[in-house]
Amino acid sequence: MDASVSGILPDRSIAALFETGAVSASRAREADQIQPASLDLRLGPVAYRVRASFLPGGRHSVAEKLQRFSLHEFGLEKGAVLETGCVYVVPLMERLALPKTVRATANPKSSTGRLDIFTRVLADNAQEFDKLPAGYRGPLYLEISPRTFPILVREGSRLSQIRFRGGEPMLSAAELAALHARMQLTSADAANISEAGIAVSIDLAGAPGSLVGYRGKRHTGLIDVDRRGAYAVAEYWEPIRRGAAGELVLDPDEFYILVSKEAVHVPPDHAAEMTPFDPLVGEFRVHYAGFFDPGFGHSAAGGTGSRAVLEVRSHDVPFILEDGQIVGRLVYERMAGRPDRLYGADLASNYQAQGLKLSKHFA
Question: What stretch or stretches form a coiled coil here (predicted)?
Fold first, then answer.
């Protein structure tokens, strides 16, 4: 890998990582596994139920920690149910031998976050979740904890994705403001831009009684993460209607699907990531950070701007959200090259031109 490369690696560069051995897998790569700016990670054939979440730390492998903290091991070849409130660790099919100029970051896939499945990637000697330092060589593991719905997973299921980057591709506030001036990144009349990114606010507007979100039901049936359009919305979600005041009280430890007021888009030569909002402004957070691929909501990919779907939780105390309140920020990064395929244009993209939308599992 050219040491001068700066930016998020596009699809063809990710494919090149396989060719050079920087990424390898125990099973052949699948045709749709590489996204415009990320790689889907696949579950391996075994899983471990563990006592609690853990980090291996600077001197230990994940396998060593599993020997201490694992309660039992079970196979995923024929599928297995992961229960809510439990923590599991699954070795992934993919492993890394990164060049010294390339580092990586992992995140839950969009559909994973919308099911309230808490996932984080673990690596040997790691002192942080979801971050793989430049030059990392070794296996990858996924910590999984379903929060609202029990799920059925199997070998090959994809719950997480990984991005590779070189240099320092993140845009400064000034660069982000200049890009917004050229490309109108959000539909906001006056974009709130800082070093932390461009603000995204909550949409609770509309006529009284109109649908503004969903709250996950408790004690539901399980969800097979590999089945699309297989489940009735009413069996898993309680619709949230706009009240007369245009506000929503978040109950502690409940899970909500809401939508941004702004339509956003990602130009083809950039990628974006939703970051959780600063908890100092309120006792809530956008629960899962998320990747936005090049072309998301962009006209070059057949979009006219897409709303950002937000997975929201309140912690410890009830919290009132009001229409237009900032709940997250989008950070933009430069691509190292334009992808060969854009989100929405060349892929069977589930969430292009979306509004308030549940995951692909619901009909």
Answer: none
